[in-house]
Design brief:
By secondary structure, the chain is an alpha/beta fold. The protein is built from 19 helices and seven strands. The protein is about 55% helix and about 5% strand.
Length: about 475
């Protein structure tokens, strides 16, 4: 029997497209889906005539795969993953590998790696980014977990991954445990900030400077070059210019309530747990929650009779220069979280490698990531990106413009949550003395929490008798 090279479970959009991608690279793929009709539809249409073989029982499915077996799960994160794992364990043999390509929480992946290894099996949590187009034509892949299994999986992943402009696959081994899913989680957190930032630029140009959708779309196209060139900038331009058959802008018909699936919240929670400043990305996550309060926002505008004043900035390029500064700040926080997790969990993550993986295939792909990779490869600095040599000069040149853009919008009555959070982070990070001395004094006053002194060595703590 001509057995398959790999098996894939879960034929939703991502699963289907990833299967087609794998098969197009010369591999034979076994597929299984819990719902028989989904499998039949796939093999009867998109997979017809290809080396994709359907199975309708897990036992036949696993038997059809070459040993050591490689089984990839593209199912909903959470309980569904655990259920499939339990069904697969009796059907697999020592040395076989299960790969979770969904958006699983990294601590669940930690647990599953240990559990599967105790059964003589391997487990890889592979973060996959790029949406349905990336899954079909080349995603960014962030695998981590049982390293012993990586040589079996590496050839397939390297072939199906997107390629950067230099031809390097956007895939590399991350590290042990749930490190792959952690890196993907932070990617999604940065994605939240990037999307919110772009939406704020769009709204500023529309509401403050009275640009039409067509004019804004052309501006995004014009400025989609250099250090802010990105996939999200590109699709934003297309979205703004898109019209229906009635010659109406589709964007204007979409309700301003943004959804989310949880990875952004996980990233914020992880940053709080690890004690990493994350206010920019957290703000983007909370703004999605606030956007869903449509009726409350409408009522708030009615009660306060809020009106926007016209903006005063004349040069549109200043808005995009401010965007660049915000991007550096947001990515700085994301990479700080990855670095802190790497140290805390002893993952030994290569931050330059992470940046290179994100250069193509993923949602946040941009030319900007080349500079980040260079920073971590060449400077080996403990400083955040905001304080690193490759970024300091441009931030320094644009910091006044950054302030003017934000202050102009706020003075006009327009909310810029992520741009404001990014600017505040920059101010806080570049302020030698902060007001935290008062906070620590208050903590010592009511709770005897002690404090350090500016005229003593770090690590020496004192308590003051504040009351007589």
């Amino acid at each position: 029997m001509d057995k398959s090279d790999i098996g894939l479970i879960g034929l939703a959009v991502m699963g289907e497209n990833l299967t087609l991608n794998i098969e197009s690279k010369g591999y034979k793929v076994s597929v299984y889906n819990r719902t028989k009709e989904v499998t039949e539809k796939f093999v009867g249409k998109r997979a017809k005539g290809k080396r994709i073989v359907p199975y309708y029982s897990l036992s036949e499915f696993t038997e059809s795969i070459n040993s050591p077996r490689k089984v990839m799960l593209m199912v909903k994160a959470g309980e569904a993953v655990d259920n499939i794992i339990e069904q697969l364990i009796p059907l697999l043999s020592s040395g076989d590998t299960i790969i979770d390509g969904g958006n699983s929480y990294y601590k669940d992946t930690d647990r599953r790696v240990k559990y599967l290894e105790s059964k003589g099996l391997y487990y890889i949590g592979a973060g996959i980014s790029g949406g349905e187009d990336g899954a079909l034509n080349g995603p960014a892949i962030m695998p981590g977990g049982s390293k012993e299994a990586w040589p079996q999986i590496e050839p397939i992943f390297m072939k199906i991954a997107a390629k950067a402009d230099d031809g390097i696959p956007c895939c590399a081994w991350m590290g042990p445990d749930g490190s792959g899913h952690f890196v993907k989680m932070v990617h999604n957190g940065i994605e939240y900030a990037d999307m919110q930032l772009i939406s704020e630029i769009y709204f500023m140009l529309k509401k403050l400077y009275r640009f039409s959708n067509d004019e804004i779309g052309k501006q995004f196209h014009l400025f989609n070059e250099g250090n802010i060139k990105s996939y999200l900038m590109e699709i934003t331009s297309e979205i703004l210019l898109h019209k229906n058959k009635e010659n109406e802008y589709i964007l204007d018909k979409i309700l301003d309530a943004a959804g989310q699936k949880g990875t952004g919240r996980w990233a914020v929670s992880s940053a709080m747990e690890l004690g990493v400043p994350f206010n920019i990305i957290a703000t983007a996550v909370f703004e999605r929650a606030l956007s869903s309060l449509v009726e409350l926002r409408e009522n708030g505008e009615y009660i306060y009779q809020r009106k926007l004043h016209r903006g005063y900035l004349e040069d549109v390029s200043e808005v995009f220069n401010a965007m660049y500064c915000c991007k550096v700040a947001a990515y700085s926080q994301g990479f700080e979280l990855i670095e802190k997790a790497s140290t805390e969990y002893v993952w030994n993550l290569d931050l330059g490698s992470v940046a290179r993986i994100w250069r193509n295939g993923c949602i946040i792909r941009s030319s900007f990531l080349e500079d980040i990779a260079d920073t971590y490869d060449n400077y080996k600095t403990r400083n955040t990106l905001l304080l690193s040599p490759l970024f300091v000069n441009e931030i320094d040149q644009n910091k006044d413009v950054w302030k003017e853009v934000v202050s102009d919008a706020l003075a006009a009555g327009l909310s810029l949550p992520v741009m404001s959070a990014a600017l505040n982070y920059f101010f806080s990070l570049t302020t030698k003395r902060s007001p935290a001395n008062l906070i620590q004094a208050q903590r010592d006053y009511f709770g005897a929490h002690t404090f350090e002194r500016v005229d003593k060595e770090r690590g020496e703590f004192f308590h003051e008798q504040w009351t007589k």
